[in-house]
Amino acid sequence: MKNPFIAGNWVRGNDFFGRDELVNEILNGNRDYLWIAGTRRFGKTSLLKQLEFLTSEGEYADRFISLFWDMQGSQNLSGLKESLLESVEDAEERFEDIGVKIEELEEMDVFGILRQLRRKAREHNLKLLLLCDEAEELINIEKNNPEALPKLRRILQRGENIKTVLTATKRLSLLETSTVPETSPFLYGFVPPIYLTRLTDEQSRRLIALGKFDQATEDEIIEKANNHPYLTQLICRRHFETADLHKVIEEISVDDMIGHFFSVDFQYLEPQEREILLHLLQNENLTLGDLQKQFDESPDQIVRLLYELTQLGFVNQEGKRYHISNYFFRKWLEREKEKLFTESSLRRAEPSVASSAPPRTTSALPEEGGTLGHHEILKKLGAGGMGIVYQGRDTHLNRLVALKVLLPDLMTDPEFKERFLLEARAASTMNHPNIATIYQIGEENGIHFISMEFVEGKLLKVWRKDNRLDLKAQIDVAIQAAAGLEHAHKKGVIHRDVKSDNIMVTAEGTVKIMDFGLAKTLARADLNLTKPGTTLGTLAYMSPEQASGLDTDSRADIFSLGIVLYELFTGHLPFTGDFELSVLYAIMNEEPKLMREHNPDLPVELDDIVKCAIQKDKEKRHQSMADLAADLRKVSG
């Protein structure tokens, strides 16, 4: 019997296993430009070759004409043109059928070639499917020809008859920022990425079954490779030849080539992701809470990092616990950890350290009956990630106020202190009936506080329970919330933590937007405070770009308000899951139910408005809060 396993080369057709949902999403989904992110040897080239295969015959051949474009080695525009021409030549027969002539393309630059291919496809009622492999090469293009990428992006994302698929490692994220003034980064529209994940158990077992191994062998291969597509193929291929599974596993665990792949992928990880891997290596089966104790990051940031590590195949989640994904990666980490991590990092990750974390100091906080400045402390109202909120009385003006106090153990951290003050500076610039008013920014005996309007009312979730049948009142609340955020955006302030718990409704029906603690101003001086790569906000209401750690603009607030409106009109969140990572996965990948599936009495127009607001691609959302507010007013009559 011939060895049925292929390791190290791309496959397609009957040799291609799994990825059915991803293939369907690419060919039938709404997104026309996608970045498929995956580690080395995870099957990126095979995926593109399978797409090329499927669109060359059968039903897809009537819709697409595909071009597999290997960008590797292009370096500059000249090289990019050469690689594009070679790709067209490899598919010459297919493109000759629609009137493409290689000799004519040779006289054009790379942009002209792409326009010509798109034009010819359109003439034959076909969509050009560009399958761009090794897209990291575009990083070199940006270095050598920075003015070319904005032009290339416009071509790849323009028109109804082109669909562009990029495959690359995480390194491509370097193109999330632009070096050309007044232009959008190349990856805008391509992010958030779709991750090329591990195979499922069922897919792995179908693959392993080709070798007709016994059940015990099959189970051990699954256990050791944990559905890593390349490692599964490699183990099976070598075991098929040697019939010595133990020897095969030990040889692969010290294989220099495998170690090189792990090393390259590891260096592209964020520093916090590497630290998480170290903690999981040194401590078995940690929970989110365990990890949170060891990192000075918000829970949502830890979730984002874990999500990415899981999607890239480094980490596996079982219930609420996380561990290193496969035997071979763990062995490599154990072997190389002294080189990969500093001594201080290794000490921090020791099991004895992981079990204890100093509690936050609360001794310096104000107490009920005490004073803070010219404010009397009446009672504690609640606590957030950065501060505690009290009800107080301004003794000068004899009015009730809300006092937000920065947690004492954050006082000495310049970044937290500045973020706290940023909330006050951002909110104090705004004077709008739907935004809680800031009265004073103060400090007494080292305690920093903000005195703001005390809103007597109900949180939006509570208000909805009392008004769940009053659609007119709900739409009015939605309009007010949009109006308040529209005012903030006009002042150059993005809230970035819009959620039902940050919106109150007074007894008179007036909406008040609270807590600009994660606000980002568009003033240049504040741009470095909350950098791309930092996730701020509450998970279930986060936009995909926030959840990806990317830079945000006002359209992130539009997405988050869309979630709030979905919840307001239906009583349900659109994106849910049993665990944090499943919620994040839903935000990034799944399409929610229409609101009318929860409440058939809702107007179709209202469903369309909210559906537009929560589009994953921010280019397809309302482009301003003013647009969203205007649409809501139309429905209100």
Short description:
With 637 residues, this protein is of the alpha+beta class. It contains 28 helices and 19 strands.
Overview of the molecule:
The protein has 28 helices and 19 strands. It has a 6-stranded antiparallel beta sheet, covered by helices on one side. The chain has a 5-stranded parallel beta sheet with strand order 2-3-4-1-5. It is α+β, with helices and mostly antiparallel strands. It folds into 5 domains: 19-195, Rossmann fold, CATH 3.40.50; 199-252, no CATH class; 254-357, Winged helix-like DNA-binding domain superfamily/Winged helix DNA-binding domain (Arc Repressor Mutant, subunit A, Orthogonal Bundle), CATH 1.10.10; 371-453, 2-Layer Sandwich (Phosphorylase Kinase, domain 1); 457-636, Orthogonal Bundle (Transferase(Phosphotransferase), domain 1), CATH 1.10.510.10. Mean pLDDT is 87; it is low at 352-363 and 521-537.
How is the topology of this model organized?
Blueprint: H1 20-28, E1 33-37, H2 44-54, E2 64-70, H3 77-90, H4 92-96, H5 102-105, H6 110-123, E3 127-133, H7 137-144, H8 148-156, E4 162-168, E5 194-195, H9 201-208, H10 215-225, H11 229-242, H12 245-253, H13 256-267, H14 271-282, E6 286-287, H15 288-294, H16 299-311, E7 315-318, E8 321-324, H17 327-340, H18 343-348, H19 351-354, E9 371-372, E10 375-383, E11 387-394, E12 399-406, H20 414-428, E13 438-444, E14 447-453, E15 457-459, H21 460-466, H22 471-490, E16 493-494, E17 503-506, E18 511-513, E19 520-521, H23 544-547, H24 554-570, H25 580-589, H26 595-598, H27 604-613, H28 625-636
Parallel strand pairs: 1-4, 1-5, 2-3, 3-4
Antiparallel strand pairs: 6-8, 7-8, 9-10, 10-11, 11-12, 12-14, 13-14, 15-17, 16-19, 17-18
